[in-house]
């Protein structure tokens, strides 16, 4: 993690991989890594799944430094919590107390909390938990807690509009993490945009709207007041990253209102995007923050994460071609510099 900061990254995002995935086609839940949790040594009122998840997450928090981030998979807590999430009902108090302790520890370290998006069976409940945490902890003019908004979902504009209204009405900073979405193989297909182009447009529209402080009826001459927003753009798409950073830099240069923005890519993926963004930081003072995200856990706990990466990497050939071209250009540049010497 120190090496990442030495390379210019603002910090590292760490994720404890344990989760529950709901397969819409099979109508089944898969608690990845749950069978490894010991049930002895706990009281009758204490859920061992929650205890194990809390400990694994707090162990992750101990690795974080200032400016690092913790990505949390709520469904890793186990069946008592996933049942509550699926019903959009109140989770057990043991879980709520655990989450509070985790957020307090992160805030004390100067780290942020990213509530990961997960299977749609659980997502409404996950969003509600994230929003409640934002109301409690995002009170100092910046976001400690972020919710994750999936651009490939047709319902995301509606959800985001409601959350922008809540942030305005309750006077807190909205932590807005934007992803395209990674549960295409298991979620109900009708909930998702019909084409990749529609998803790309949705992603870029949210990013641009937030950066211009004109988003979904908030901001602008005729809109509601645009409340405080902190933006995190998690993307491996070079075009989306470049468009967003260009717009952000333009608004900073022209002294136009914008929002704090960070970018994130997975560790070992899309390094050309990551280092391209870092290079811009050396050329101007726009202050773009770039993160790399690392996921850890046992093999059983990481299966869901690894499976999604396989699907996501169907377009890896095009990215590899781009990176190969960039590598050749840089190698040739260095060879020419050596020849001059």
UniProtKB/TrEMBL annotation:
Cofactor(s) annotated in UniProt: FAD
Keywords, alphabetical: FAD, Flavoprotein, Oxidoreductase, Proline metabolism
Catalyzed reactions per annotation: L-proline + a quinone = (S)-1-pyrroline-5-carboxylate + a quinol + H(+)
Molecular function as annotated in GO: FAD binding; proline dehydrogenase activity
Domain Proline dehydrogenase: residue ranges: 60-320
A Gene Ontology BP annotation from the UniProt entry: L-proline catabolic process to L-glutamate
UniProt cross-references to SUPFAM superfamilies, sorted A to Z: FAD-linked oxidoreductase (SSF51730)
Pfam families reported for this sequence: Pro_dh (PF01619)
Superkingdom of source: Eukaryota
Cellular component GO terms, alphabetical: mitochondrion
EC number: 1.5.5.2
Described function: Converts proline to delta-1-pyrroline-5-carboxylate.
Family assignment from sequence similarity: Belongs to the proline oxidase family.
UniProt-recorded name of the protein: Proline dehydrogenase
Organism (species): Beauveria bassiana (White muscardine disease fungus)
């Amino acid at each position: 993690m120190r090496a990442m900061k030495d390379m210019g990254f603002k910090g590292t995002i760490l994720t404890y991989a344990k989760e529950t995935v709901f397969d819409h086609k099979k109508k089944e839940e898969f608690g990845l890594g749950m069978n490894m949790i010991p049930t002895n040594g706990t009281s009758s009122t204490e859920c061992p799944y929650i205890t194990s998840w809390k400990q694994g997450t707090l162990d992750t928090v101990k690795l974080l430094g200032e400016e690092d981030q913790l990505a949390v998979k709520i469904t890793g807590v186990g069946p008592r919590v996933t049942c509550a999430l699926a019903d959009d009902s109140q989770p057990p108090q043991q879980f709520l107390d655990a989450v509070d302790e985790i957020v307090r520890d992160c805030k004390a370290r100067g780290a942020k909390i990213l509530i990961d998006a997960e299977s749609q069976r659980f997502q409404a409940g996950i969003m509600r938990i994230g929003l409640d945490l934002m109301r409690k902890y995002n009170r100092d003019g910046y976001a400690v807690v972020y919710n994750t908004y999936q651009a490939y979902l047709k319902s995301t504009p509606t959800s985001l509009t409601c959350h922008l209204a809540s942030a305005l009405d309750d006077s807190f900073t909205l932590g807005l993490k934007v992803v395209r979405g990674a549960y295409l193989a298991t979620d109900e297909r009708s909930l998702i945009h019909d084409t990749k182009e529609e998803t790309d447009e949705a992603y870029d529209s949210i990013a641009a709207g937030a950066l211009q402080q004109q988003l979904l009826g908030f901001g602008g001459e005729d809109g509601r007041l645009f409340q405080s927003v902190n933006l995190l753009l998690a993307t491996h798409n070079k075009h989306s990253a470049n468009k967003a950073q260009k717009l952000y830099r333009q608004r900073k240069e022209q002294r136009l209102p914008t929002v704090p923005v960070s970018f994130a890519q997975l560790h070992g993926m899309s390094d050309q995007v990551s280092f391209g963004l870092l290079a811009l930081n050396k050329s101007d003072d726009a202050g773009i923050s770039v993160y790399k995200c690392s996921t850890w856990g046992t093999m059983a706990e990481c299966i869901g994460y690894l499976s999604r990466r396989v699907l996501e990497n169907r377009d890896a050939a095009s990215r590899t071609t781009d990176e190969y071209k960039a590598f050749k250009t840089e190698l040739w540049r260095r060879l020419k510099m050596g020849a001059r010497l």
